[in-house]
Amino acid sequence: PVRPTLPVDILFRKGGEPLVCLTAYTTPVARLVDPHCDVVLVGDSLGMVLYGLPSTLGVTMEMMIAHGQAVMRGITHAMPVIDMPFGSYEESPGQAFRNASRLMAETGAPAVKLEGGVHMQDTIAFLTARGVPVMAHIGLTPQAVNTLGGYKVVGRDDEAAQVMADAKAVQAAGAFSVVLEKTPEGLSERITQALTIPTIGIGAGAGCDGQILVVDDMLGLFTDFQPKFVKRYASLGQTASDAIADYAAEVRTRAFPAPEHSFADVLPAKGAEK
Ligand code: KIV
Ligand code: NA
């Protein structure tokens, strides 16, 4: 029961109740976030969060397809979007279409996200003209970490005009929405007011049309580092660590397994155990 099409109510929601977005990489997590979210992103952040890579640069099409398929099995309500990985779209509009259409065909996701503003305008226009809905991603674009010189705020002072130009370029190219990552709050608000498509912020302040976080970050599961913009709504990493320590102690003292976790040699006369 996978949602097959792009819901236009989400596409054009602007200026109303903020859009709620989270990432998911697996079926069980997709099932958890789906009822609460407008958009579920299969983010290439999975490279760091799931695979222990130092950045998103090592993420492949095969990884995005495998996790996109897993997430699609868990979604019936929200709109799924799948990230295009580094190296799969930058070379040319043709390369981008080939890989975007493969992501959509093999996962069933109705839309893709790619990083870049003015320099991706032609590619976004090429994709949208050929049936690929595109969510853009500007400001801090993690796939460009090596040319940006780190995961710094993008758009302070003189940089602000460039980010505004990027926002206008992706909208003109036909993007249905744009992620603003780590742009200062005043600039994010000005971009949101200047655009007719919804802005989705991550570390971009409260003025955006929606918000997104990496779900493992907000659950306190991924704790390698904690950006300032992440609010932790739970400490699942600590909860898991405590549970694993309890298990280890109980195995070592033979407290686990107890009789109720074991099977009798003779079938009990009455009762349910099979
Ligand atoms: O890969 C990702 O998780 C993302 C966002 C959080 C926007 O691109
Ligand atoms: Na991403």
Automatic annotation (TrEMBL):
<dbReference type="GO" id="GO:0005737">
    <property type="term" value="C:cytoplasm"/>
</dbReference>
<dbReference type="GO" id="GO:0015940">
    <property type="term" value="P:pantothenate biosynthetic process"/>
</dbReference>
<keyword id="KW-0566">Pantothenate biosynthesis</keyword>
<dbReference type="InterPro" id="IPR015813">
    <property type="entry name" value="Pyrv/PenolPyrv_kinase-like_dom"/>
</dbReference>
<dbReference type="Pfam" id="PF02548">
    <property type="entry name" value="Pantoate_transf"/>
</dbReference>
<comment type="function">
    <text>Catalyzes the reversible reaction in which hydroxymethyl group from 5,10-methylenetetrahydrofolate is transferred onto alpha-ketoisovalerate to form ketopantoate.</text>
</comment>
<keyword id="KW-0479">Metal-binding</keyword>
<dbReference type="InterPro" id="IPR040442">
    <property type="entry name" value="Pyrv_kinase-like_dom_sf"/>
</dbReference>
<dbReference type="GO" id="GO:0008168">
    <property type="term" value="F:methyltransferase activity"/>
</dbReference>
<comment type="similarity">
    <text>Belongs to the PanB family.</text>
</comment>
<feature type="active site" description="Proton acceptor">
    <location>
        <position position="181"/>
    </location>
</feature>
<feature type="binding site">
    <location>
        <position position="83"/>
    </location>
    <ligand>
        <name>3-methyl-2-oxobutanoate</name>
    </ligand>
</feature>
<dbReference type="GO" id="GO:0003864">
    <property type="term" value="F:3-methyl-2-oxobutanoate hydroxymethyltransferase activity"/>
</dbReference>
<protein>
    <recommendedName>
        <fullName>3-methyl-2-oxobutanoate hydroxymethyltransferase</fullName>
        <ecNumber>2.1.2.11</ecNumber>
    </recommendedName>
</protein>
<feature type="binding site">
    <location>
        <begin position="44"/>
        <end position="45"/>
    </location>
    <ligand>
        <name>3-methyl-2-oxobutanoate</name>
    </ligand>
</feature>
<keyword id="KW-0963">Cytoplasm</keyword>
<comment type="pathway">
    <text>Cofactor biosynthesis; (R)-pantothenate biosynthesis; (R)-pantoate from 3-methyl-2-oxobutanoate: step 1/2.</text>
</comment>
<feature type="binding site">
    <location>
        <position position="115"/>
    </location>
    <ligand>
        <name>Mg(2+)</name>
    </ligand>
</feature>
<feature type="binding site">
    <location>
        <position position="83"/>
    </location>
    <ligand>
        <name>Mg(2+)</name>
    </ligand>
</feature>
<feature type="binding site">
    <location>
        <position position="113"/>
    </location>
    <ligand>
        <name>3-methyl-2-oxobutanoate</name>
    </ligand>
</feature>
<feature type="binding site">
    <location>
        <position position="44"/>
    </location>
    <ligand>
        <name>Mg(2+)</name>
    </ligand>
</feature>
<dbReference type="GO" id="GO:0032259">
    <property type="term" value="P:methylation"/>
</dbReference>
<comment type="subunit">
    <text>Homodecamer; pentamer of dimers.</text>
</comment>
<keyword id="KW-0489">Methyltransferase</keyword>
<dbReference type="GO" id="GO:0000287">
    <property type="term" value="F:magnesium ion binding"/>
</dbReference>
<keyword id="KW-0460">Magnesium</keyword>
<dbReference type="InterPro" id="IPR003700">
    <property type="entry name" value="Pantoate_hydroxy_MeTrfase"/>
</dbReference>
<keyword id="KW-0808">Transferase</keyword>
